[in-house]
Amino acid sequence: DPYVLGPYLAKEGAELRPHRQSDERAEELAALIHRRAGVVEDRKRLEQRMKGIDVSIRGITSALAKLIADIDRHMLRLIEQLGWGEDYRFCLSVPGIGPVTATCLLIAYNRSICANADQFIAFLGLDVRKRQSGRYVGQCKLSKLGDPELRRALFCATQAACCYPPFEQFRQAQLAKALAKTGAKVILARKLPRVA
C-alpha cells in the first residue's frame, strides 16, 4: 500500500540495508553445525544409557567420533571455500572460543546485518528483556530469539574462557555484584562475541 510505504520509506529509508542472498555453502555449514550437535548428543545419551552394563559400545562410540571428525573437516573446507578462513582463525585466537563456537559465530556474523555490537547480541538472543504491563514488573530474562545452538556454544565457551585471567576477573566482578553463577556466565557469553 503506497500510503503506508511512502511515509515509512521517507522516515526510515536511510537506515534500510539491501537484502543479501545467502550462499548455499553457508546454509550447508549452518545445517552441519546442528547435525553435529545432534550426533554429539546421541553419543552422550548412548554412553549414559549403557553405563554400568557389561556390553561394549566402543565400536559405536568410535564410529560416532569418526563421524564428528568427518563433519568437522567438512565444515573447515566450507569455511575456506567461503573465504572465511582468516576470520575463523581470528575467532580461534580469543580464549575460550574453539572450532565449533568460531564456526557458529562466523555463520551468525555473515547472516546478520547488525549496525553495532548490541544489535548483534540481540540477534544471538542474549539480550535481556523485562516483562512489564501496567504496575506489573517481571524478572529480567534472555530473549532467546537467536540460534539456540550458538547460545549453547557460547555458554560452554565461558567455561574455557574462565581459565584466562582477564575473563575470570570479569566473571568475578559480576559475581561481586551479587549475580548468580549462571548470570555471570551469561554476561561473559555476551562479552565473547564482542571480543571476537
Could you provide a short overview of the structure?
The chain has helices at residues 2-12, 24-49, 58-82, 85-92, 99-111, 117-124, 148-161, 165-176, 181-195; strands spanning 128-133, 136-142.
Describe the fold and architecture:
There is one protein chain. With 196 residues, the protein is mainly alpha-helical. It is built from nine helices and two strands, in the order ααααααββααα. The chain has helices at residues 2-12, 24-49, 58-82, 85-92, 99-111, 117-124, 148-161, 165-176, 181-195, and strands at residues 128-133, 136-142. A two-stranded antiparallel sheet has the order 1-2. α2 runs antiparallel to α3 (58-82) and α2 (24-49) runs antiparallel to α5. The longest helix is centred in the first third of the chain and has 26 residues, at 24-49. It is globular and about 70 Å long. The mean pLDDT is 90.
Key structural traits:
196 residues, 2 strands, 7% strand, globular
Shape field: globular
* Biggest β-sheet description: 2 strands, antiparallel
Structural class: mainly alpha
User: Whole-number radius of gyration?
Assistant: 21 Å
Low-confidence stretches: none
Within the largest sheet, what's the order of strands?
A: 1-2
Classify the oligomer: single chain
Distance between the termini: 42 Å
- Which range does the strand content fall in? 5-15%
Mean pLDDT: 90
Helical stretch count?
Answer: 9
The secondary-structure element order is: HHHHHHEEHHH
Number of strands: 2
Residues in helix, %: 55-70%
